[in-house]
Amino acid sequence: MRGVLLEDVSVGFDGVAALSDVTLHIEAGEQLAVIGASGAGKSTLFRALTRSVALGRGRVVVDGQDLYSLPRRRLGELRRRIGTIYQAYNLVPQLSAGVNVSLGEVGEMGRLGTLRAFFAGPDAGLSKKARAALEQIGLGDKAGVRTADLSGGQQQRVAVARLLVQRPDLILADEPFAAVDPVTTERVLQTLLHLNREGATLLANLHDVEVARRFPRVVALRAGRVAFDGPPGRLTEDELAKIYEGDPGGDPGGSENGEGSDLPYAGYGAEGSFRLTEGRDGVSSH
Ligand SMILES: Nc1ncnc2c1ncn2[C@@H]1O[C@H](COP(=O)(O)OP(=O)(O)OP(=O)(O)O)[C@@H](O)[C@H]1O
Description:
GO terms for molecular function: ATP binding; ATP hydrolysis activity. This protein has one domain: 3-Layer(aba) Sandwich (Rossmann fold), CATH 3.40.50.300. It is built from nine helices and ten strands. The chain has helices spanning 42-48, 72-79, 97-102, 108-120, 128-136, 152-166, 182-197, 209-212, 237-244, and strands at 4-13, 16-26, 31-36, 57-62, 65-66, 82-85, 170-174, 201-205, 217-222, 225-230. The strands form two sheets. The chain has a six-stranded mixed beta sheet, with helices on both faces. It has a four-stranded antiparallel beta sheet with strand order 2-1-4-5, with helices on one face. Helix 5 packs across helix 6 (152-166) and helix 6 packs parallel to helix 7 (182-197). The structure holds adenosine-5'-triphosphate (ATP). The site of adenosine-5'-triphosphate has 13 residues, from strand 2 and helix 1.
């Protein structure tokens, strides 16, 4: 994977600009947190990276390929190398957790295995990989449970286990920590960072600025434009105030960030930041 480039990207919905002139270079293997107020365009940015939204203007290049000019088959091939955790998790609710995880296995063998698992019963025939992934994410006992019957946080972990099986080159995690408790957040974060260390480029849309500060590079969107792009140390209270200015809801996911505050960054100064990984400070200046 040679990284990601968005060049002057604009996306509009019924005349409303969701993204305006967004230019971002993301190097292969980078960890990038995307923040911004509700409606700032974060999800639209992620959808543009899988060609799931029409582009008004600009260019999106993933691994050297112009995403929006690719023929269908090549687009499919590229998409299989992109792992997503979206707010709806992209899981098939009627299928068991184990089968959903198996869907991460690309290629014929993976598909056959999944079909076999589907027909043989909810928990039968799963590959070792799928089982190990569920174990790793703490859902070893849920392989046979219908995904619809799992809690929101458990479904989120199923989506993460699927990534462990898929081993994508690019991970798009759109609010991966919504609806999960702090322990699960840590577990999911560690898994994503593990996949990143193994080479995957990681983009995470985060509501919680404290979590975003743990990434070496933070991009903030404000009204569809890039309002900040740099290391978390430069994310001062002033910057944050500009980014979230006029945001009526603060953190719609329910802020755990300070009593009585409705702002997602309340209580966290620029100093409090820390990182999990070492040696990743070399944020490329774009
Ligand atoms: N399918 C759509 N049709 C019409 N408008 C849309 C559509 N998707 C997004 N929008 C609009 O585009 C803007 C950006 O939305 P987007 O979902 O990208 O924001 P966001 O930053 O992800 O917000 P949140 O944090 O609340 O999820 C918003 O004004 C939204 O209402």
